[in-house]
Design a protein that fits this description.
The chain has a single domain, classed as Up-down Bundle (Growth Hormone, Chain: A). It has helices at residues 12-19, 22-34, 36-42, 48-60, 62-75, 84-102, 110-136, 142-173, 179-204, 224-231, 235-265, 272-297, 299-315, 325-361, 366-394, 405-431, 437-455. Helix 13 packs antiparallel against helix 16. It starts with 11 loop residues before the first helix and ends with a helix. The protein is mostly helical.
Length: 456
């Protein structure tokens, strides 16, 4: 473990090195959810219905590969650790997929997009799931885990700002609005940053040694799907699955039409870069606020407040139109204050659920928990984007043609009203979440006493 420091036993150097992978992963997520489908639809001529199906299929396969990867990672024992080897294995897979997907050479068909989407997500699965479990194992302290995820989230937002800066430079400095050129710039940023971040992790971050529990203390579990079934019986985890689905479906449906909203409704598509820079800067600035609220009222209630705030800010943009960019920017930046909360608090809460599982099963299954939670997240994104793009397609919307008034109102509905419903649903579900700070502290104390008795 890391030397004793000011973060619940995790020193600052370890925190900063661990969080660094959040930068390139965030840069990757930016175009995958916001710009890839407008580019393939508008510039390469693929239909919205076909693209939405590709996104759904490529994400749904993760419901098999993600839990399987977590299950494998939890059972890996090497002299280099059980999480580190998979970061090395997944790196070239992800990099090659990014190169092919972000810099395609026409002609490109829907099968090309499907294959390279799946390759990128496979690399993501191999790398990021062991990485998330590794972070949960850096400390068993309730607030230290919040510091780990908050640090990672700062890097994540920095990565999103970095991607926004690339877009801003291309759009407003170089006067280049071709989405293909923007995607190329983001791709090269990723191809440089990913190996650098992996190297920092491998060299500077220790991995806690986890020994297998005595055979008589742990039930023999032969199949990962059996273990998933047992995990879903844990009430706090099941509740967080519902919360995550509501958050992600709401965000994904909004992201799916955001570029169209700014292009066609606000007629401000050339200001996307600056908009996101301000949005994510607000997200960074607000993270200390959410950490303070997490200490005062609990992580779950802080998340509920953040989701309600997001709902109100998004709903306020429902009636905006051409020429209302400055008003939109105000509400959008205010919503950015909540971004840091719902991006890192759910992960910190899941890290606590792992302790509940350990108390019940006497196993260490952090990898599988984060894998299942990650798969749920991906499925929510796929469902949200699929619904949004399919509905747009049914209205006859074509990214290559100026939409009629009905099309504009459908974009407004999908951008503002539908996400508001899901955000409020998430707030309702998480408000009375049962695993509070006090209950978690008692649980950890009980686990420590049990381990002491076993050691004796």
């Amino acid at each position: 473990m890391a030397a004793e420091g000011t973060r619940g036993g995790i020193d600052r150097k370890t925190l900063l090195a661990y969080g660094s992978l959040g930068f390139p992963i965030a840069v990757l997520g930016y175009p995958m959810t916001l710009f890839l489908h407008p580019y393939y639809a508008g510039e390469l001529g693929l239909g919205l219905a076909a693209i939405s199906t590709v996104l759904l299929i490529s994400r749904m396969t993760d419901f098999i590969t993600d839990p399987l990867m977590g299950w494998i990672s939890d059972r890996t024992r090497t002299r280099f650790g059980r999480r580190k080897p998979y970061l090395v294995i997944g790196l070239p897979v992800m990099m090659f997929g990014i190169y092919k997907l972000f810099m395609p050479e026409p002609p490109v068909d829907i099968w090309y997009m499907l294959v390279w989407n799946m390759v990128v997500y496979l690399g993501w699965t191999i790398m990021v799931l062991p990485y998330s479990a590794w972070g949960a194992e850096l400390s068993e302290n309730y607030m230290a885990r919040a510091s780990v995820t908050a640090t990672r989230q700062v890097y994540t937002i920095a990565g999103l700002i970095g991607a926004s800066v690339v877009i801003w430079i291309y759009q407003e400095w170089l006067d280049r609005t071709d989405p293909g050129e923007v995607l190329t710039g983001i791709a090269w940023t990723l191809l440089v940053m990913l190996p650098v971040s992996i190297a920092l992790l491998l060299v500077l971050v220790p991995e806690k040694e986890v020994t297998a529990p005595p055979r008589q203390l742990a039930p023999r579990q032969l199949t990962w799907w059996w273990e998933i079934s047992s995990m879903m019986k844990i009430g706090p985890f099941r509740r967080m699955v519902y919360v995550a689905l509501a958050i992600v479906i709401g965000e994904a449906s909004r992201h799916a039409v955001l570029v169209f909203f700014m292009d066609d409704v606000l007629q401000a598509g050339d200001r996307i870069g600056r908009t996101f820079i301000l949005y994510y800067l607000m997200g960074v600035a607000a993270i200390p606020l959410w950490q303070y609220l997490a200490r005062r009222i609990g992580k779950h209630r802080s998340l509920a407040i953040a989701m309600t705030h997001s709902a109100l800010m998004v709903l306020a943009t429902a009636f905006l139109g051409a020429g209302d960019y400055n008003t939109f920017l105000i509400f959008y930046v205010l919503k950015g204050a909540s971004f840091g909360a719902f991006a890192y608090l759910p992960l910190a809460i899941i890290a606590d659920v792992v302790d509940v599982d350990t108390a019940v099963t006497r196993q260490k299954r952090a990898g599988l928990f984060f894998a299942v939670f990650g798969a749920i997240d991906k499925i929510g994104i796929a469902v949200g984007m699929f619904i949004a793009l399919q509905v747009l397609n049914l209205t006859g919307y074509d990214p290559q043609v100026t939409p009629n008034e009905a099309g504009l109102w459908m974009i407004r509905l999908e951008y503002a009203v539908i996400p508001t419903f899901f955000f409020l649903l998430a707030s309702y579900l998480v408000w009375n979440y049962p695993l509070t700070n006090e209950r978690h502290a008692k649980l950890v104390a009980a686990l420590e006493r049990r381990e002491a008795r076993q050691g004796a």
